[in-house]
């Protein structure tokens, strides 16, 4: 297995590469994983989300245990929505409550697939080859907005706010998800602990089937859906998501600040 991360350097540039010990071995980009020869000390770098996806494909009802709890049929094709790129934050960054929303905010701990090659209409073998690696995702939701309008479920609005897609802390290539479990804690108390093998659609199946609907680009993330144990986050509470072999993604929900400036997207070089 290899661990890949993305950082901001002291001069404000973005660097991406393979982490070994306390050093980053820089590569051109996720889409062009060619070593530059530069080796940088992690002490001089600021961690970012490990990729800059153009889109996040977020699955719903992709675990047998959750389908049974909700009394929903197991889908025959991945059920998904899209989260915008501006919703992505990295480990340690605050989840920001929207200024004009006082309702329930929900965490969802998920495995994330990071795409490494452009793919469209790919078969299972090609789909497996297109997976760069795996990361962690907290698919945050403003739950009270979903059915605010009885005529139109607002999935994208409820899940698309800035900071509502926590990704990180790293991408791990060569990771065997089949025997792994995902653990979510809220302020240190276990809330989710489920086997990834309970997925309805495997990662390769997800990539293959979703690529029949839309083109997947390098850096795009597929959030594989969550299982039982989803719950709400109070202002000031901290959610940590862990998969052994990938790491821990930790973020805290901050209260809304009416005088807070709008968060601008990453304008530096995207890698």
UniProtKB/TrEMBL annotation:
Range of residues in the leader sequence: none
UniProt-recorded Gene Ontology molecular function terms: acetylpyruvate hydrolase activity; metal ion binding
Residues in Fumarylacetoacetase-like C-terminal domain copies: 55-253
Alphabetic keyword roster: Hydrolase, Metal-binding
InterPro entries: Fumarylacetoacetase-like_C, Fumarylacetoacetase_C_sf
Pfam family, one: FAA_hydrolase
Keyword presence, Phosphoprotein: no
Name by which UniProt lists this protein: Fumarylacetoacetate hydrolase family protein
Source species taxonomy: Bacteria, Pseudomonadati, Pseudomonadota, Betaproteobacteria, Burkholderiales
């Amino acid at each position: 297995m290899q661990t890949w991360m993305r950082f901001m350097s002291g001069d404000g540039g973005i660097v991406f590469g393979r982490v070994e010990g306390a050093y980053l071995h820089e590569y051109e980009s996720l889409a062009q994983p060619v070593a530059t020869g530069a080796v940088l000390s992690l002490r001089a770098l600021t961690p970012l989300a490990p990729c800059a996806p153009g889109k996040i494909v977020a699955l719903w009802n992709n675990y047998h245990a959750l389908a049974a709890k909700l009394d929903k049929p197991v889908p025959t094709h991945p059920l998904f929505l899209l989260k915008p790129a501006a919703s992505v934050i990295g480990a340690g960054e605050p989840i920001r409550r929207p200024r004009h929303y006082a309702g329930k905010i929900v965490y969802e701990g998920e495995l994330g697939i990071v795409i490494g090659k452009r793919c469209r209409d790919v078969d299972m073998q090609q789909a497996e080859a297109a997976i760069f690696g795996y990361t962690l995702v907290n698919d945050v939701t403003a739950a009270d907005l979903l059915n605010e309008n009885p005529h139109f479920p607002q999935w994208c609005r409820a899940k698309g706010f800035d900071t509502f897609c926590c990704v990180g802390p790293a991408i791990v290539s060569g990771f065997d998800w089949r025997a792994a479990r995902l653990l979510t804690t809220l302020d240190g108390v276990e809330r989710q602990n489920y086997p990834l093998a309970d997925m309805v659609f495997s990662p390769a199946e997800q990539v293959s089937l979703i690529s029949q609907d839309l083109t997947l680009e390098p850096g795009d993330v597929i959030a594989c859906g969550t299982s039982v144990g989803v719950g709400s986050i109070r202002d000031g509470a901290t959610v940590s998501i862990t998969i052994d072999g990938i790491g821990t993604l930790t973020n805290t929900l901050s209260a809304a600040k009416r005088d807070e400036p709008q968060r601008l997207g990453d304008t530096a070089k995207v890698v």
